[in-house]
Amino acid sequence: MVRCFLIHTVCPVSALGPGDSRVLYCRLFGPDEAVWTERDLNPEERRVLQREQVSVVARQVRSAVSLSREASGRLLVEAVPGEEALALQEADSGVVRLRATEPFSEEMSALWLSVQSLGFTLVCEPHENLLLAEGTLRNLTKHCLEHLHMLGQGSEVLLRSNRIDALLSRLLPHGQLLFLNHRFAHSLEKEVAAYMAK
Predict the structure, then answer these.
(1) Buried-most residue among 93, 135, 136, 183 (CB within 10 A)?
(2) H or E element: which one contains 12?
(3) Could you give the angle at which helices 161-171 and 182-196 cross, rounded to 10 degrees?
(4) SS3 sequence, 8-49?
(5) Which domain of life is it from (predicted)?
(6) The CATH number fitting domain 2-196, selected from 3.40.190.170, 3.30.1140.32, 2.60.40.1120, 3.30.450.60
(7) What's the rounded mean pLDDT across residues 172-178?
(8) Contact between 99 and 107 (Cβ < 8 Å)
(9) pLDDT, mean of residues 11-35
(10) Does the pLDDT of residue 169 top 70, yes or no?
(11) Model-level pTM?
(12) Domain ranges in the chain?
């Protein structure tokens, strides 16, 4: 099962410190009690704890992205709107193992895909099929980039969260990865495209 999906920054933003990452979107799956370590908190304290724990994941992924980019030696070229498919092909990807208590109560895997200054991350349970999770992450990222134009200047991810929620409900229902045959994947693509065109 997927525990959460994040969209966050992976490059320095003028308002952030050198090691910080801003979480732009987060969706949690599963009951809170199974995901978060502290159970006897009031709702406000739980929300603050969840925000801190998600920020830890974003910082760890940002660090992995920085190391990957430094090791590859490739220059980061900004894509213009309309070149989302090319930007996705050139995206860096990887997996970060999150040890127990960093930040979850049990060990997790964080699959990430960085497209320019944005990071897309799926946090999965350790027994999850990582190839299936990577395919789902690439599919989610493709739809976010193409339909929500997230690479353009002034992209308002926060204002489009309802569309991202709709994508997740179709491509990752209740945090469950879907095995898709070609016909079902094609019909799902049509359904998502029709919804996003509204």
Answers:
(1) 136
(2) none
(3) 160
(4) EECCCCCCCCCCCCCEEEEEECCCHHHHCCCCCCCHHHHHHH
(5) Eukaryota
(6) 3.30.450.60
(7) 90
(8) yes
(9) 68
(10) yes
(11) 0.83
(12) 2-196
